[in-house]
Amino acid sequence: MRKSIYFLSIIFLVFSNCGKARIDLVSKNSGVNLPEKYDIVKNETKDLGGPDFEINVVLQFDKENFNYIIKQTDSLAKVNSNWKKSDQSADYINRSNESEPEEIKIDLNKRTLYFNLVHL
Prior knowledge:
The protein is an alpha+beta fold. Helix content is 37%, strand content 33%. The protein has three helices and six strands; from the N terminus they run ααββαββββ. Strands 1-2-6-5-4-3 form a six-stranded antiparallel sheet, with helices on one face. A hairpin with a 4-residue loop joins β5 and β6.
């Protein structure tokens, strides 16, 4: 039941072109609470044919709000094995649902978050 509700909400995002809802997926799926202020570089859903689609979100942050994000990823990396930290990035990779792999890359130099979810 839960998977079907999740799937229906994803389908709604694809067909409603609801930008805020796509951005909300970043927080909902990764555990990172986004700050109030950020620049939206990309916020799109691509049709991959049939029921398949891809969601891409790219957000850029000022220094203060980026530090807010990084503090969260420091904590999340200690308790969630999907989060990995390096000198260049913080990465979230979730392959627990093979039909909806998702990734987040936070570029520490560019203060940019990249979110990708593919529904196959």
